[in-house]
């Protein structure tokens, strides 16, 4: 059973919900062809799909739609609240939810939020709250607004994708780009804001990518074994588990 807080009234909400899933996204540029809310849309969709497959009564909260997106500040439309503010928002969100929720999982759609989530969730676990977080990274995906995210949005919200404007940006590996991004931001390396190439993106591929993230997230939640930072990092499948043990 899934209860969406954005459509519920307070009597609809169980006094001891099994799980509360909180999508965490961002409002930041995603090239000329994807909406600013791409990360939030993906995190919200994954949360909804996961909730429908959990056996307990699961509440999905409205998303935290602003993240730590300073690297995208060179583009109009980006709204970043930064590390400190995001950390505080997560802490106060968990404290509030914990008054009536048994277990809280934050589903993150933006990589720049990771440090704030690590620090906030670790603090909340130290305070005794049953909370963890996990990300929506696509297996083998490109860095930003490339084929993976474009495919995902063609599956989730095709009316919001402007494929006629899609164009490649900087296609170097993210490991190579990261020092430049940290120092100068995305615009310095990619004037159109894309890190990757959206060419070939399609809704079917997006469905496969989203389903993979949903399945991985379900496995992690069912095992619920957070690391010291509060991350749910349970391997995605048997092959991954065997590799981790070797």
UniProtKB/TrEMBL annotation:
One annotated GO biological process: riboflavin biosynthetic process
InterPro entries tied to this protein: Creatininase-like_sf, Creatininase/forma_Hydrolase, MftE
Gene3D superfamilies xref list: Creatininase
Cofactor(s) listed in the protein's UniProt record: Zn(2+)
Keyword Metal-binding found: yes
Keywords, ordered alphabetically: Hydrolase, Metal-binding, Zinc
One function term, GO molecular function aspect: hydrolase activity, acting on carbon-nitrogen (but not peptide) bonds, in linear amides
Sequence similarity: Belongs to the creatininase superfamily.
Descriptive protein name: Putative creatinine amidohydrolase
Organism name: Actinoplanes missouriensis (strain ATCC 14538 / DSM 43046 / CBS 188.64 / JCM 3121 / NBRC 102363 / NCIMB 12654 / NRRL B-3342 / UNCC 431)
Source organism phylogeny: Bacteria, Bacillati, Actinomycetota, Actinomycetes, Micromonosporales
